[in-house]
Design goal:
four-stranded mixed sheet, 13 helices, 41% helix, binds the ligand CSC[C@H]1O[C@H](OP(=O)(O)O)[C@H](O)[C@@H]1O, Rossmann fold, Four Helix Bundle (Hemerythrin (Met), subunit A), alpha/beta, 2 domains
C-alpha cells in the first residue's frame, strides 16, 4: 500500500539481504518507525510485543526469523530451537504455526549449508503468496460491497470492521480491508465504522491510520456501539478478519468479534469473515472448545498509551491501584453466526462441506 505516495509492504529485507525491516505497530498512529530484526530472538520479541501483529504477518515474520537463525547456525539443533522460540510467542493465530512448520518441512531434509538461502526464499514465497491471497479476497469481497451499493441505489455502503485486519496485519492489502480498498479505488461510495477494539485499540490506532492514509471515509466508534448502529440500520455489512477458522467454520478473531456477530444476527446484518486459507485450521473442529486463546498482560487494560498535548508519548493508568484485570485477546464466533467466508477461492458458507469443497487439497490431509 502507499504511505504519502511511497509504496510500502509491512516487511522487507535489509540492505544486507539478511536482516529484515518491519513497521513498529506499537508506535502508530503517532510515530511511523521502522524496526530492524537481525536474529531469531529479535523476531520472536517483535511478534510477542506486537511490533508486528496480525495472523498473516506474524507467520511471515516467523518464517524470516527461521531464516535469520539458519544464517547464523543451520544445524538441526538450531532449526528446532528457532522453531520452538517462534512458536512460543503467540498461541492463537494458526498462520504462525503453519508458517513455522512449513519452513521446517522445507529445510529439514536439506544439508545444513543449503538451509540459509532456501529459508529466505521460502519466507519470501510465503510473503508473496499472502499478497496474492489478500488481493484475491479483495476481488471476491468487492462483489459483496458492490451488491450492497446496488441495493442502496448509490447511497454509500456502511461497513463495520473490528480490530485491524488491514494491510498492517498482512504483507499488503489486508484481509477484511482488501475489499474495502478495492471498492474505494473503484469509486463505490462507502464508509467504514471502525471499532476502536479495546484494549490495544488496533482499530482506533491502526485501521483508522490505514484508512486515513488511503482517504477512505471512516468513523471510529467504541466497541459497544456496534449493536446500536445495527439496530438503527446504520450498518449494511460487517467484514472482519480471522486468526483461526476451523474445519467446521468456527472463527477465532480479536476479542469482541463474537458480540458483533450476535448483534449482526439479531439485526439481519450480513457478517463476513475474510479468511485466507493459511488461517484455516483443518485439524480443528470445535473452535469454542479447542482454540487456544491467548491471555495477554492485564496492563494492556489498566494502562493506555497516547500522545500528550505537548507531543510526548506517554502511558497512564486508568484504574484504581490493586484492581485485577483479565485480558483474553480473542474469542470464537460459531459458524452459525457467520454469513460467509471471503476466501481467495471465492465467498463460501462457513460450513465443513463448503470448506471441503473449496479446499479439497487441504481438507483431505489436515496438516
Ligand atoms: C488479517 S488477520 C488480523 C487479525 O489479527 C488480529 O489480532 P492481533 O492484532 O492480536 O494480531 C485480529 O484478530 C485481526 O482480525
Amino acid at each position: 500500500m502507499r504511505i504519502e505516495g511511497k509504496a510500502f509492504t509491512t516487511i522487507w529485507l535489509g540492505d544486507d539481504a539478511a536482516s529484515i525491516h518491519v513497521i513498529d505497530q506499537t508506535r502508530l498512529p503517532h510515530k511511523f518507525e521502522i524496526v530492524t530484526i537481525s536474529n531469531v530472538a529479535e523476531a520472536a520479541r517483535a511478534i510477542a510485543d506486537m511490533q508486528v501483529r496480525g495472523a498473516p504477518l506474524i507467520g511471515v515474520t516467523a518464517a524470516y526469523g527461521v531464516a535469520l537463525a539458519m544464517r547464523a547456525d543451520p544445524s538441526d539443533g538450531n532449526l528446532d530451537k528457532a522453531c520452538a522460540i517462534l512458536a512460543a510467542t503467540r498461541p492463537t493465530a494458526v498462520n504462525l504455526k503453519w508458517a513455522i512448520e512449513s519452513t521446517r518441512r522445507r529445510l529439514s531434509g536439506l544439508p545444513p549449508n543449503e538451509r540459509g538461502p532456501v529459508a529466505y526464499a521460502h519466507a519470501a514465497a510465503i510473503a508473496d503468496e499472502d499478497v496474492a491471497l489478500c488481493e484475491a479476497i479483495g476481488e471476491h469481497g468487492l462483489a459483496l460491497i458492490e451488491a450492497a451499493a446496488a441495493r442502496k441505489g448509490g447511497e454509500r455502503v456502511n461497513i463495520l470492521t473490528h480490530c485491524n485486519a488491514g494491510w498492517l496485519a498482512t504483507v499488503d492489502w489486508g484481509t477484511a480491508t482488501a475489499p474495502i480498498y478495492k471498492a474505494h479505488e473503484k469509486g463505490v461510495p462507502l464508509h467504514v465504522w471502525v471499532d476502536e477494539t479495546r484494549p490495544r485499540n488496533q482499530g482506533a490506532s491502526l485501521t483508522a491510520w490505514e484508512l486515513n492514509q488511503h482517504g477512505v471515509p471512516h468513523t471510529i466508534v467504541i466497541d459497544n456501539a456496534g449493536g446500536h448502529l445495527m439496530q438503527h440500520g446504520d450498518v449494511d455489512l460487517v467484514i472482519v478478519g480471522t486468526d483461526r477458522t476451523t474445519a467446521s467454520g468456527d472463527v477465532c478473531n480479536k476479542i469482541g468479534t463474537y458480540l458483533k456477530a450476535l448483534a449482526a444476527k439479531d439485526n439481519g446484518v450480513p457478517f463476513y469473515v475474510a479468511a485466507p486459507s493459511p488461517s484455516i485450521d483443518f485439524t480443528m473442529d470445535d473452535g469454542v472448545a479447542e482454540t487456544p486463546i491467548e491471555t495477554r498482560s492485564p496492563q494492556e487494560i489498566t494502562h493506555i498509551t497516547g500522545r500528550a498535548a505537548d507531543g510526548r508519548i506517554e502511558t497512564v493508568c486508568l484504574v484504581p491501584l490493586g484492581s485485577a484485570a483479565h485480558n483474553p485477546a480473542f474469542d470464537v464466533t460459531p459458524a452459525r453466526l457467520v454469513t460467509g467466508l471471503i476466501t481467495e477461492r471465492g465467498v463460501i458458507a462457513a460450513s465443513r462441506d463448503a470448506l471441503a469443497r473449496a479446499f479439497p487439497d487441504r481438507a483431505a490431509k489436515p496438516q
